[in-house]
Amino acid sequence: MKSSFLLLIVVALFSAPIALGQATNAKPKLGRKAQQVTTTLPILAQEAKPSVQIAKSSFDKFYERLGISYFGAYTSPNLEDWDSRYAATSPATQSTRCNNCDTYAHGLFNQVNFAYNFGAKLRLNLVPRWTMFLAEPSDQDPGQRGMFLVEDALIGFSGVLFVSADKKFSWFTAPRMRLPTSLATRSNVHPVFGRLNYQLEWNNSFTYTFNTEWEASLLLGNRVWIFDNRYNLSRHRIVLNPSISYTLNETTKIQSYFEFFLENNRNWKSINGKYPNYINNWQNLMVGVSHDLTPSLNILPFVSNFIDTVPYSTRSLWVGAWISYTIK
C-alpha cells in the first residue's frame, strides 16, 4: 500500500513538467496583425527653416512698375481723290492752298508709351512717335521722301485723379511736353526766329458711365507752341472733344467722336503787333467700331469727315483705323 502510494507520487512528479510544457506549447498562434508590436516613440519637433528669398535686382523692380503699350493710326486719302497727298481736306480748301491738311494719306502714325508707376496717382510717361509711309505721294518722285518720319516725343505724367463713390464718374489728366525733334512743326510759320519749338500741353478727360451700355466723355485740351524760348501764346490751341460709346457685347463697342479746335491764328502782340484772335479751324466727326481681337489687342476702323464748313464734299471724307496693343 505504501509502496503503491510512493509510486504514484513519483509518477506525478515526473509528469508535471511535461504537462506544463505541453500547456505552454498549446497557446493559440496569433494572427499577423496581432504579432506586430507597435512602439510609439516620441517625435521631436523640427525647427522650420526660413524660406530663402532671392533678392530682386534693381532692374526687376523697375520692370515690374513699367507699362508698355502701342498705338497706331492708319489714314487713307480722301474719297474724292485717292491719289491725294493728304488724308482729307476741309471743304473750305482752295485748289492751291490746304487749310486743314494735317494728316498724310496712306500713312501709319505710331507711338509707344513707356509708363512708369512710381507709387503715386500719376505715371511718368515717355512716348516716342513717328510716321511710317505706306505709299509714295503723287507729287514726289520715288525715294524723295523717306519711309519713316520722326514726329516728336512726349514726356510728362498721366493718371486718374478722381473717381466718384459709385464708380460712374472719373477724371483723367495728362500734363506733358512735346520735345523738339527734327520736324518740330510742319510749316515755317515764324521765319524771323526759326521753326524749332517744343510744345506744352495739358489734357483732361471727364468720363461718365450711365449704365453697362452707354458711356460719355469730354476731352478738354490746351496746347501751346514755344518758339525759341518765347513763352507766350503766339500759337495756342484749345481742344474740345466730346465722345459717346455704346457697348454691343464684351468685346465690341460703337464709338463716335467730335473734334473741335480753336486756335489763335498765330497772332500775338510781341510778334506782329496783333492780339490773339481765336478762330474755329477744325471740326471733324468720326464714327467707328471698336473690337477687342484679344485681351491685349484692339482695332477701331472708322469713317471720318470735316464738318466745319459747307457745302459738304467727299474731299473731306476719309477712312482709317486705330490699333491699340498692350505689351505689358
Plain-language structure description:
By secondary structure, this protein is mainly beta. The chain has a single domain, classed as Porin (Beta Barrel). Helices cover 12% and strands 44% of the residues. Strands 1-2-3-4-5-6-7-8-9-10-11-12 form a twelve-stranded antiparallel β-barrel. Strand 7 and strand 8 (236-247) form a beta hairpin. It is globular and about 85 Å long. Mean pLDDT is 77; it is low at 5-11, 18-35 and 182-194.
User: How confident overall, as mean pLDDT?
Assistant: 77
The CATH homologous superfamily is named monomeric porin ompg
Strand composition percent: 35-45%
Return Rg in Å: 42 Å
Could you give the distance between the termini?
Answer: 118 Å
Encode the helix/strand succession as letters: HHHEEEEEEEEEHEEE
Helix content: 10-25%
Structural class: mainly beta
Give a short account of the largest sheet: 12 strands, antiparallel, barrel
Number of strands: 12
Name of the CATH class: Mainly Beta
If classified by CATH, what would the architecture be? Beta Barrel
Compute the number of helices: 4
Overall geometry = globular
Task: Give a concise summary.
With 328 residues, this protein is mainly β. It has helices at 2-25, 32-35, 58-64, 269-272; strands at residues 66-75, 107-116, 123-133, 148-163, 169-179, 197-209, 214-227, 236-247, 252-263, 279-292, 297-306, 317-326.
